[in-house]
Write a structure and sequence with these properties.
Elements (H helix, E strand, L loop, with lengths): L7 H9 L3 H23 L4 E2 L6 E2 L6 E6 H6 L15 E4 L8 E4 L16 E5 L2 E2 L13 E8 L13 E7 L8 E9 L3 E13 L3 E12 L4 E2 L10 E15 L2 E12 L20 E2 L7 E15 L4 E19 L9 E21 L2 E22 L5 E25 L2 E25 L7 E7 L16 E19 L5 E11 L2 E2 L12 E2 L2 E14 L4 E21 L3 E21 L5 E16 L1 E2 L2 E2 L11 E14 L2 E12 L2 E2 L19 E2 L2 E11 L3 E8 L7 E5 L10 E4 L4 E9 L1
Parallel strand pairs: 6-9, 13-16
Antiparallel strand pairs: 1-2, 3-8, 4-5, 6-7, 8-9, 10-11, 10-42, 11-12, 12-14, 14-15, 15-17, 17-18, 18-19, 19-20, 20-21, 21-22, 22-23, 22-24, 24-25, 25-28, 26-27, 28-29, 29-30, 30-31, 31-34, 32-33, 34-35, 35-38, 36-37, 38-39, 39-42, 40-41
């Protein structure tokens, strides 16, 4: 997960302080704990905190998918951008490869937005800390306890910008008993080497413990570049690290301090762009003179302090400070010509504090508290365009957002096995966009720009306002929102849970981060709101034979925020006034015999804009972007046989998606434009992953293949023809990857 640098030597040093006898004893204890954890997952007793308190997954009246570390490994998921292969109705896309992924749950996401200043409507959390910058969402996954994906608006307990849902990445923390850890190394095609490890030491039994984890990956580009001397696209070069210190000075006080840091230096995503230079190329090949680098950094600190005041009442404080930066050099034309070359640069800082109380007693479970969040984005983007003479636009701005909230939710036992849930959250958001300026310049790509005209602030046509180095533009906005949840759930004697709920979600208003040709295109747009109605059921049948969860939902969705690109090139941030989304989801696990587990899920989705007009075109009735009508996943884990003192396990899985559109126009074109929006879609496709592993108490050897049949699919597309370019922007997804790894646990 977004955790970052540290050295493997540090992790190894921790383990070297333990005697061989102690290591042998701890290896046995670790294996016992691992087997117990696996047994819990097998019996579907996964403990989650989706309602900010510990509950069995089957007792939570929400649509939640929980993935443990073993499940992630068997499915071949090593990056947050791959989660769509395991969660129904979850789509993940990005114009930058794994960097700055856009999460879309049940059709609700940032649509075709690509600017770094926009908040994700699917809230992303690291150990309950909200991560505001979307660049930090493109994380390598390592040393995780689990991932919880909450589908549907989470406007009460998570709250901030969660109209689509929330994803919580929960890392492993010291358990204050013994010493354990692991070392893992792997090699894959594209000359990719991976290594990760973790070491945990208990300084004082049940009192003080330390855990250190690192993750490293480096490999060649997955997209071959035929341009002489050109770099291959989609290479890997990441290093991440995390340190967790946990202290329990008394049974009533539990303190966890976490620090992480990391960096990514891989090359940019491949682009299918200008048509004549695609001639003779394979799908996974490009002809590009300037494949840039994704230079991203992320770091942060957090303190989680839990104080048990009594058997019924506890307090939790979560304080965090995080930062990072991105420097993305993107050749956005897919050709050896300098038609569109962009340098996306931003620096981030954020602070948050959440104080909450948990009460359990007298037939009531209550969670309530206060939240404050602050984040800042300073952006400097350079757009090199085919202007006569060569030149482009430079853009600078600073965005500062503050969010204040008070919230509470109570689960009330109104009758035997019947629970009424009432929750509310009041949020006050402020946002300021200032120190903004942009100018038109002349100069080659990479050369120092020579300003010739101020474009922001300027209300006229680009190039008509004289250059003024002191000119600045600023504006501000504020929003208030009352969101909440009402639910009724009933648990039968068999353990089956049924529920009906209403949730209201909210995403704060936003300013157009892509406005650089004129200040007339920079303004705040309305907040998003979702009224969500849901029916659900979850439980078991036949003892441990079958576990299932199903939900049906309907969304009344207003003011989705999306980009509208126009000739200029100009992008406008606009609201889609009215949309509706409804669908059905089913997740099930079948265990017919010991040593065999079948997991399957399906998501059915209907989405449409009920009212939307862009560039004079009536798009009412069109599907929402990145909202396929059907997604499905199926896979199994089969312990085939015992051999050489270990277990041989085969684990294939398949992920299917029906057609999805990348533009709100779908396949339509606005009259009088050069649009060819039929290119901006991906047809139905299925991808197969598989792994074969051999495991003993301490060693796991694993071979894997992802996208086994090398399916050729696009993951993102943007209308550039309508913006005045002779091509559309399309990003291909990864080709087949395969390799092997070995892991030693102690």
């Amino acid at each position: 997960m977004a955790s970052k640098p540290m050295t493997c030597a540090f992790a190894l040093a921790l383990s070297c302080t333990v005697s061989p006898m102690a290591l042998a004893q701890e290896a046995s204890a670790t294996q016992t704990a691992s087997q117990a954890a696996k047994a819990h997952e097998t019996n579907a007793d996964i403990v989650v905190t989706a309602q900010r308190r510990e509950q069995s997954l089957l007792d939570v009246p929400l649509a939640v998918t929980a993935l443990g570390s073993d499940s992630l490994a068997q499915r071949g998921i090593t990056n947050s951008a791959q989660l769509g292969d395991a969660v129904p109705n979850l789509q993940i896309n990005s114009p930058y490869g794994h960097t700055q992924p856009n999460f879309s749950l049940r059709g609700i996401g940032v649509a075709n937005e690509y600017n770094s200043n926009q908040a994700s409507p699917v809230g992303v959390y690291l150990d309950d800390v909200y991560l505001a910058p979307r660049t930090s969402h493109g994380m390598g996954l390592f040393d995780l306890d689990r991932i919880e994906v909450l589908r549907g608006p989470q406007g009460t307990l998570f709250g901030r910008n969660t109209t689509g849902g929330a994803i919580n990445f929960i890392t492993k923390k010291p358990d204050l008993s013994g010493t354990n850890g692991y070392l893992q190394a792997g090699y894959a095609n594209f000359d990719t080497f991976t290594a990760q490890g973790a070491a945990e030491a208990t300084v004082s039994e049940d009192k003080l413990g330390l855990r250190v984890a690192v993750n490293y990956a480096k490999g060649d580009g997955q997209m071959k570049n035929v341009f002489p001397g050109g770099r291959d696209a989609m290479s890997t070069d990441t290093l991440q690290g995390r340190v967790s210190l946990r202290a329990m000075p008394s049974e009533a006080l539990d303190i966890t301090l976490r620090a992480y840091a990391g960096r990514d230096r891989g090359t940019q995503a491949a682009v299918h762009g200008l048509g004549p230079f695609r001639t003779g190329l394979g799908f996974f090949e490009i002809n590009e003179n300037r494949v840039g680098t994704n230079r991203t950094d992320a770091w942060g600190f957090s303190a989680n302090v839990a104080l048990e005041l009594s058997d019924t009442l506890s307090l939790t404080s979560i304080t965090s400070y995080d930062g990072g930066s991105q420097n993305l050099q993107q050749a956005a034309d897919g050709s050896p010509l300098d038609i569109l070359d962009i340098n996306w640069r931003s620096q981030y800082r954020q602070f948050s504090e959440e104080l909450r109380a948990n009460y359990s007693g007298n037939g009531v479970n209550f969670v309530g508290g206060l939240f404050y969040g602050w984040d800042r984005n300073i952006t400097d983007n350079t757009f090199n365009l085919p202007l006569p003479p060569a030149g482009g636009f430079f853009q600078h701005y600073r965005q500062v957002r503050n969010s204040y909230a008070v919230f509470g939710q109570a689960d009330i036992d109104v009758a035997d096995k019947l629970v009424l849930t009432l929750g509310a959250r009041y949020t006050h958001d402020t946002s300021r966009y200032d120190d903004a300026y942009a100018y038109l310049f002349v100069g080659e790509v990479g050369a120092a720009p020579f300003p010739i005209a101020t474009t922001v602030p300027c209300t006229g046509v680009a190039g008509t306002c004289a250059y003024d180095p002191a000119a600045r533009f600023a504006l501000s906005d504020k929003n208030n929102a009352l969101t909440g949840r009402v639910a009724l759930s009933y648990t039968f004697d068999s353990g089956t849970l049924v529920y009906a709920s209403y949730n209201r979600g909210y995403r704060a208003g936003a300013v157009n981060g892509g406005g650089y040709t004129s200040s007339a295109g920079i303004g705040y747009i309305k907040p998003e709101r979702v009224n969500a109605y849901e029916l659900g059921i979850k439980g078991r049948a036949g003892g441990r034979l079958l576990t299932y969860a199903a939900s049906a939902f309907y969304y009344d969705y207003t003011n989705q925020q999306l980009q509208d690109t126009r000739a200029g090139p100009v992008s406008f941030l606009v609201n889609a006034p009215k949309s509706e989304v409804y669908g059905l989801e089913l997740e099930t696990t079948l265990r017919p015999v010991d040593g065999f587990r079948l997991d399957a899920s399906v998501g059915l989705l209907h989405s449409k804009y009920k009212r939307l007009t862009l560039q004079g075109a009536d798009l009412s009735g069109n599907s929402l972007t990145f909202a396929p009508r059907m997604t499905a996943q199926v896979g199994f884990e089969w312990d085939m046989l015992q051999v050489g003192g270990g277990t041989l396990t085969f684990a294939p899985n398949m992920a299917y998606s029906s057609r999805q559109y990348f533009s709100p126009f779908n396949a339509e074109n606005a009259s009088g434009t050069a649009q060819v929006n039929s290119e901006l879609q991906q047809g139905a496709n299925a991808k197969v992953n598989a792994s074969l592993s051999w495991s003993t108490d301490a060693i796991t050897v694993r071979a894997f293949a992802n996208n086994l049949f090398n399916r050729e699919t696009f993951g993102y597309g943007l209308d550039l023809r309508g913006a005045g370019f002779p091509y559309n922007f399309l990003v291909p997804s990864a080709p087949r990857t395969y390799g092997a790894s070995i892991r030693y646990s102690f």
